[in-house]
Amino acid sequence: MTKRKLLTFALSGTIQEEEKELTLSIFLRLFFIKFYLLCLYIGLVTIVFGLGKFSNIEQRAGSSIVHTFVNFIVLAPILEGLIFRNHLNLKLENIVLALLLSIILFWGDWFIVILLWYFILVGYTRIRKIFISRLLLIYSSSIIFAFAHHYQIIDWNNSGTIVDFF
To answer: What is the pTM of this model?
Structure first.
């Protein structure tokens, strides 16, 4: 995506026609970009903090490094796409799929309440044919996606960490 297309998307929420279709070629390019960025991140953390940062990963995760790698490189992008992006086209089946995956993944966690309300609201606007700005939908989904990554580490008794999150 060129800078101009990215700026157009950020300001209007519209996607160029050739960018709409997720082909195998585009998926593989995105996969390798994510793989490269993860390797770069691991390399930088190793250089700055040493290998000790990763030495307990198997104990903390309760799984092997290969299992953790597959989760972060393969499963996480697929699930994040299905939950936080796939519903943006407002197709009812995509909204329901995102809702069901959210329930499965976040069951037993209070964050599920936020996701339930969000997907119920999106589904309601879809069913009632209420106009909802595509930009509002994109940015609200992005904020909830960011929140999904950080809500567990925010100190809710410290307003500074809450402000830092936003």
So the answer is: 0.59
